[in-house]
Amino acid sequence: MDAISSSPVRFRSPGPALSSLDLDKRRPIAALRLLFAVQLVVFAIVVWKIAITTPYLDMLTWQHDALIALRTNTVSGWWAHLLHPHNEHRLALVRLMTLFDLTLGGGNQLIFIVVTLFAVLMMAWGLWRVMADNARRQDRALALIVPMLVLSSTAALDVGLPINCVYPLSLAFLVGALVLFSGAIVAPASATRLFIGAIICASLAPYGNMTGLAVWPVLLWLGLRGRLAPALLLCVLLIGGAESLLYLWNNMPGSHASASGLSAGHAASSLARIVAYAGIFLGLPFSRIPALAVPSMVLGLGLAGVTIALLLRDCVTRAPSTRASLVSTGLLLTGIGVACMAALGRANEEEALIAPARYALYVLLLYAGLVMRFLLWLRRHPLSGRMTDLRIGLGFASLLVLFQGVSGFAGFRAADTLRKSVQSWHPGQHDECYLKTIFPDLGYADRVRRDVDAYLLER
Q1: What is the tens place of the pLDDT at every residue in 177-189?
Q2: What pTM value is reported for the model?
Q3: Rounded to the nearest 5°, which phi and psi values hold at 451?
Q4: Helix, strand, coil: what percent of the chain each, to 5?
Q5: How many whole angstroms separate alpha carbon 193 and alpha carbon 398?
Q6: What's the number of CA atoms in the CB half-sphere (13 Å) around residue 310?
Q7: CA–CA distance from 283 to each of 96, 210, 357 (Å)?
Q8: Any stretches that span the bilayer, and where are they (predicted)?
């Protein structure tokens, strides 16, 4: 023992090798951080360049309804204004922002852009924070890929165009509910506080967009997966069921054909359309390119198959749940659930199978869930050492930045064309070219624009 203790140099020999390895890791880690910074800067530039601050289409309806509520100014009137359906959605959050925009913001739409930007940034930060908890330095750097997916040019499209704000608003509360709920499952000491926060976020999610209702079955799945207390599971079931029933009350579209009137051929055609649209939806944003429509649909259906396989594997293996694994599961369930909702809603339509680019944020979160799963797997099974993991991360992050630049440039051109059309219209112009960009009823658009201008001058 004396001989061993008298020669400590023997135990220091691995030191230089470890230091050299750490130095080798610093470069890819620094490169990952730099790529994240570039992604963030390009995201901000895209938001700035595509921002449109002139109301059009549904935004005119929001302003019209807000002016009626301001003139009525009664408790029942405000309640009806906030919760009255817009199509099949109840846009209470959007209606509140419209009121703030008219009364405090001068009707310039900047409130929409600022609030939506904050919502997207909070989603990105929340997902990175979950992945970075108790993680090593290189794993925290690799986790930057997750917010890079969220802070993409397709998300910038939803931020810069206030008419698309409904999707980030709903998803911000949905992601918040997932993060808090998973925390309540794995952190018993703070379970009550986190559970209450999750329920509040989940309750607000549908009031950005109807797809927010998907949060309730997702939370139930996570609760069962994480062996949440039966009393809390019952609470989620009752609150979610009650809100869903109230939300859908007098709000479901009527059926145009009875079940008995549907032929087998029509049913098969509808089923094929549902599957195809789900693939197109999950193939966003690539499915927006006509030449890539079919490959993107195949890609989307492949992603759906991988996602379903992962979810079924969870049910079979019953592996211990972590906060990050639960959140990733929630993102996977949300992506699949919303794709099914969108596909079912278009089962009997005769229009072309085209998924709007504004839906891509849902698919980005599905991608984020898959990437989170892969990163968590890498932590348990490094590929030939941590350097290989970092190199893979660098390659993927570089592709994201490249895609950001290409898609951002395309977004500039599309937004510039739309902006010129919207800004060139003035009340009294009834040219057919404005029917798609301003409003199908230009007479209605005339009245709303004049009413808004008169209200802003009176203030």
Answers
A1: 999 999 999 887 7
A2: 0.88
A3: -65, -40
A4: 80, 0, 20
A5: 39
A6: 23
A7: 33, 21, 10
A8: 30-52, 110-130, 142-161, 167-187, 194-216, 228-249, 270-286, 292-312, 324-347, 359-378, 390-412
